[in-house]
From TrEMBL:
Keywords: ATP-binding, Motor protein, Nucleotide-binding. The keyword Nucleus does not apply. ATP binds at residues 90-97. This is Kinesin-like protein KIF22. Belongs to the TRAFAC class myosin-kinesin ATPase superfamily. Kinesin family. PROSITE patterns: KINESIN_MOTOR_2. Residues 2-333 form the Kinesin motor domain. Residues 626-645 have a biased composition (Acidic residues). Residues 502-515 have a biased composition (Pro residues). Residues 411-471, 497-518, 615-661 are annotated as: Disordered. One of its GO terms (biological process) is microtubule-based movement. Gene3D superfamilies: Kinesin motor domain.
Length: 754
C-alpha cells in the first residue's frame, strides 16, 4: 500500500528548442541523488518552489535507467505474491505514454514492454530452477476508461457496448465485469497483443500533443504460479493516465472538450482522493470516477509507484505546479505508511530483494505476503488462521491515528489478507501539510528492524505528543515534551513492575519484553522514533521554505477550486477557496468569490477576521481545521487573484500592522463591515432600503416585478419588523430574493465600483 512517487522531467521536444526552461531537478546536497524539483513562483521569478520526491529523473534519463531504478526491483515482489501498480500522471504532452509504452526501438521501449520482458524472464528462470515443479503463467487484460466508461482493448471496437463494462467491488478489490483475459507466453505474443490493442485505444491530436491519449489505459499482467496444489496469483498493473489539460491551450473542439471534461474530472477526483487520504478524511471520494475506483490509490494492497511526468518549459507553468502539488501529496501517503509499517509480529517473508540502492521502501506488511494466495493453499490457510485470532498481535497500523498519544491500550485491527472480503479501511492520516519533505529522509529499510525493541529512545530528539499537530514547536519545547513522555513511560513501567504484572503496561497486544531491562515497549518506541524522524524532516523542510510551501499550498487550492468550478462542483470549489483564504487571509477577491459561491449555494455569508472562522453548512469543507493548512504566510500578505482566464496571480504587499489580516465582509450584526468589500454590501443595502423603485430596478438581475415586490414588502413592514434590511443574509431571506439574486446584484455593483 505504499506509494512511491518519482518525478521525470522530459527533454525539450524539437519544436520547443529555445523555449524557456523553468523546471529543474536538484538534490538536497551534493552527495545525494536527485530528489527535488524546483520551479519558480508564477509571480515572482526570484522565488522558487521546491517539491521533494522519492527520486527525480532529469532530461537525460533513459528509458532503461528509469525502469531499472523504479520498476525492476518490484518484479521479485510480484513473484512473491504482491500486486504492483505503476502509473504515470501528468499534464498532457509531458511524456506519460512515452514513459509507459515508449517507442518501438529497443532503447526507447517503455516501462510496459520492459516489465513484460522481465516477467517472462523471471518466470522461465523459476520454472527452470524448480525443474518444472513451479509453472508460471502470464495472462493479460487491457482496457481503457474513456469518458468514464470502461472498454476492453483486447476486443475489437465494434464489439463495444456504448455503456461500457461495469465495475464491481469484490473482496476489497475493484473488478471490471466481463473483461477478457489473454494468455501470453512470451514477449512476441505480448507485442502482438499490445500493438493490436493500442490501435483500439482512443487517441487524437491536440494542439499540445500530436498523439494525445484521450483515455486512461490500464494493462493488467496476471502472474499465476502453480506449484503442486498451491496457486499463487499476483497482478502488475501499468496505467497510462490521460493527461489533464487546459482547453484554452489545446484548442479542443467539441468532441475533444467532452473527452477533456471527463479526463479533467477524473483527475480532479484523483487529486481529491489524494488530498482526502493525506488529510486523513474518513470519506475518500473514490467512487466519483471509474478511474479512481480502479486505481484505488492507497487502498490497494501491494506496491504502488506513481511517476509524475513533467514538461520543462514555461508554457506548462501552472499545470506543472498543480501536478507537482498533487503528486507531492500522494507522496505523503507513502511517507506515513513507511512510518507505520515496521511491525514484525509474524514471521515475514522478507523483501530483501527490494533493497536496491534506489528503493526507499518499507518491508511490506507481513500479511501482505498472503495476498493473492488462493484459499486452500498453505499460505492462505495460515493467513486465515491468523485473521481468526484477534488476540494475536497484529500490525500496529494506526500508530499515528490515535489522537491521544497516551500509554493506553489500543485495539489494533486484525490484519487484512488480500482477496478476502475485508471492507476497505480508510487510510489514516499523516498529519503534515508539508509538500516538500526532504526526500533524503532515511529509508526505514536501512534501519535495523529490531532497534526499537531494544534501544531506549534518545530523549533529546524525540517528539512525544500530539502527532496530529503541525510542527510549530521550538526545540526546547520538544525536549521538555520528550522528557515528560519518557518519564511517563518509565513511570508506567515501574507501576506495572510494582504490580508484578509480567505484561508490559502499554499494549497487551505486544509480547512481553525479552528481558527485564527497562526498555520502552516496542510500539511506543517505534512511535517515538517515527515522530523523531518526522520532526527532523519537517523542521528541515520548514526551515527550508516555509512561506513558499504555504504559498504553493494556497496556489494549489486556488487551482483546485477553479477546476472544481469548471466541473460544476461548487461545494468543493467553495471548500478549496475557503482553505486558500486561510493561506491568503483577507484577500478581497478571494472573499468575493467565496461570498458569491456561498450565496449561490444558499449558505450564510462568510464571517471572517484574518483567517476564516469555520462556518460549515451543507457539508462544505471549511478552513481552520487545525491541519496547519490555514497558516498565515509569514512576513507578507499575499493578494491572490484567481482570474477567469485561468491564471492565478500572487501579489505581495507589505505586511500590515495588524499582522496583515484585513477584516472583511461581515454581516448579520456579528461585526460591522470594515473590509474592502463592505462598501459594496453597504451600497446594496442602502439602495434596497431607499425603497426607490428606480434605483432598485437598476440593480443587476432585479427586474420591475422583483423590485416592486421588494418595495411592497419593505413598505408593509415597520422598521423593527424587517422594514429595513440590515444584512445581505437578511436580504436573501426576503420573498423573491434568494442567494443567486443577491449575488448578481452584488456582482453588478462590484463591476460598477471598479
Ligand atoms: N523522455 C522523453 N524523451 C524523449 N521524448 C519524449 C520523452 N517524453 C516524452 N517525449 C515526447 O514528448 C511527446 C509527448 O509525450 P507523450 O505522448 O508520451 O505525452 P503524454 O503525457 O502521454 O500526453 P497525453 O496525455 O496527451 O497522452 C511525444 O512526442 C514523446 O515522444
Amino acid at each position: 500500500m505504499s506509494v512511491r512517487v518519482v518525478a521525470r522531467i522530459r527533454p525539450l521536444l524539437e519544436k520547443e528548442l529555445g523555449k524557456d526552461v523553468i523546471v529543474r531537478a536538484d538534490r538536497v546536497d551534493d552527495a545525494k541523488p536527485l530528489t527535488v524539483v524546483k520551479i519558480p513562483s508564477p509571480k515572482n521569478e526570484a522565488e522558487e518552489f521546491s517539491f521533494a520526491f522519492n527520486s527525480v529523473y532529469d532530461q537525460s534519463t533513459s528509458q532503461e535507467e528509469l525502469f531499472t531504478a523504479e520498476v525492476a526491483p518490484h518484479i521479485k515482489a510480484l513473484f512473491q505474491g504482491l500486486d504492483v501498480t505503476i502509473f504515470a500522471y501528468g499534464v498532457t504532452g509531458t511524456g506519460k505514454t512515452h514513459t509507459m509504452r515508449g517507442g518501438l526501438r529497443l532503447a526507447e521501449r517503455g516501462v510496459i514492454p520492459r516489465l513484460l520482458s522481465n516477467v517472462f524472464r523471471r518466470g522461465k528462470k523459476m520454472m527452470k530452477d524448480t525443474n518444472g515443479e513451479t509453472v508460471v503463467d502470464v495472462a493479460l487484460s487491457y482496457y481503457e476508461i474513456y469518458n468514464d466508461k470502461v472498454f476492453d482493448l483486447l476486443e475489437p471496437p465494434e464489439k463495444r457496448q456504448p455503456a461500457g463494462l461495469p465495475l464491481r467491488e469484490k473482496e476489497g478489490k475493484t473488478f471490471v465485469v466481463g473483461l477478457s483475459e489473454r494468455p501470453c507466453d512470451d514477449l512476441k505474443d505480448f507485442e502482438r497483443l499490445y500493438i493490436e490493442a493500442n490501435n483500439n485505444r482512443v487517441t487524437a491530436a491536440t494542439k499540445l500533443n500530436a498523439h494525445s491519449s484521450r483515455s486512461h489505459a490500464i494493462l493488467r499482467v496476471k502472474v499465476t504460479q502453480t506449484s503442486g496444489d498451491t496457486i499463487r496469483e499476483s497482478t502488475a498493473s501499468a496505467i497510462d493516465l490521460a493527461g489533464s489539460e487546459d482547453n484554452r491551450r489545446t484548442d479542443n473542439g467539441k468532441e475533444r472538450l467532452v473527452e477533456s471534461a471527463a479526463i479533467n474530472k477524473s483527475l480532479f477526483v484523483l487529486s481529491q482522493c489524494v488530498d482526502a487520504i493525506s488529510r486523513g478524511d474518513k470519506r475518500i471520494p473514490y467512487r466519483e470516477s471509474k478511474m479512481t475506483r480502479i486505481l484505488s490509490l492507497g487502498q490497494n494492497n501491494g506496491i504502488t509507484v506513481m511517476i509524475l511526468n513533467l514538461a520543462p518549459i514555461r508554457s506548462y507553468h501552472l499545470d506543472t505546479l498543480s501536478s507537482l502539488n498533487v503528486s507531492s501529496r500522494a507522496k505523503r501517503i507513502e511517507v506515513r505508511e513507511i512510518e507505520n509499517e515496521i511491525v514484525f509480529k509474524q514471521a515475514p517473508r522478507t523483501n530483501s530483494g527490494l533493497l536496491g540502492a534506489n528503493i526507499a521502501r518499507q518491508p511490506l506488511r507481513p500479511l501482505n505476503n498472503a495476498h493473492n494466495v488462493h484459499t486452500g493453499t498453505l499460505a492462505a490457510a495460515k493467513a486465515a488462521e491468523k485473521a481468526e485470532k484477534p488476540d494475536k498481535p497484529a500490525k500496529a497500523f494506526a500508530v499515528f491515528a490515535d489522537k491521544k498519544p497516551s500509554l493506553s491500550v489500543r485495539s489494533i485491527p486484525a490484519p487484512t489478507a488480500a482477496n478476502t472480503s475485508q471492507p476497505r479501511q480508510p487510510l489514516l492520516p499523516k498529519p503534515t501539510t508539508d509538500s516538500s519533505i526532504p526526500a533524503a529522509r532515511p529509508s526505514k529499510l536501512a534501519r535495523p528492524t529490531q532497534i526499537s525493541l531494544l534501544r531506549p529512545p534518545q530523549p533529546s530528539s524525540l517528539q512525544p505528543t500530539q502527532p496530529q499537530q503541525p510542527i510549530s514547536i521550538s526545540p526546547s519545547q520538544i525536549e521538555a515534551m520528550v522528557e515528560k513522555k519518557v518519564a511517563e513511560i518509565l513511570a508506567a513501567r515501574a507501576a506495572a513492575e510494582a504490580a508484578s504484572n509480567p505484561q508490559p503496561p502499554i499494549s497487551p497486544t505486544l509480547p512481553p519484553p525479552a528481558d527485564a531491562e527497562p526498555t520502552i515497549p516496542e510500539e511506543v518506541a517505534r512511535r517515538l522514533e517515527a515522530l523523531e524522524r518526522r520532526i527532523e524532516s519537517e523542521a528541515a523542510a520548514r526551515a527550508d521554505d516555509d512561506g513558499g510551501r504555504a504559498r504553493a499550498e494556497g496556489l494549489r487550492l486556488l487551482l483546485q477550486a477553479r477546476q472544481a468550478k469548471e466541473c460544476g462542483e461548487d461545494l468543493v470549489a467553495l471548500g478549496c477557496y475557503e482553505k486558500a483564504l486561510g493561506v491568503f487571509p483577507g484577500q478581497a477577491k478571494l472573499v468575493g468569490k467565496i461570498e458569491r459561491l456561498r450565496a449561490k449555494l444558499g449558505m450564510e455569508p462568510l464571517v471572517c477576521e484574518g483567517t476564516v472562522k469555520e462556518k460549515r453548512r451543507g457539508g462544505s469543507a471549511g478552513v481552520g481545521d487545525g491541519d496547519g493548512e490555514g497558516e498565515y504566510i509569514d512576513g507578507t500578505e499575499a493578494d491572490v487573484e484567481d482570474d477567469e482566464d485561468g491564471s492565478v496571480k500572487v501579489v505581495r504587499t507589505p505586511r500590515k500592522k495588524n499582522g496583515g489580516r484585513t477584516r472583511v465582509v461581515v454581516t448579520e450584526g456579528e461585526e460591522e463591515d470594515v473590509g474592502e468589500e463592505s462598501p459594496k454590501a453597504k451600497r446594496l443595502l442602502e439602495i434596497v432600503n431607499s425603497r426607490d423603485l428606480g434605483r432598485i430596478r437598476g440593480l443587476h438581475g432585479i427586474g420591475t416585478k422583483k423590485a416592486q415586490d421588494l418595495v411592497d414588502h419593505l413598505t408593509l413592514k415597520g422598521e423593527g419588523e424587517g422594514g429595513k434590511v440590515e444584512s445581505l443574509a437578511q436580504l436573501r431571506m426576503l420573498p423573491g430574493m434568494g442567494g443567486r439574486v443577491v449575488e448578481r446584484a452584488w456582482e453588478g455593483l462590484a463591476v460598477q465600483a471598479v
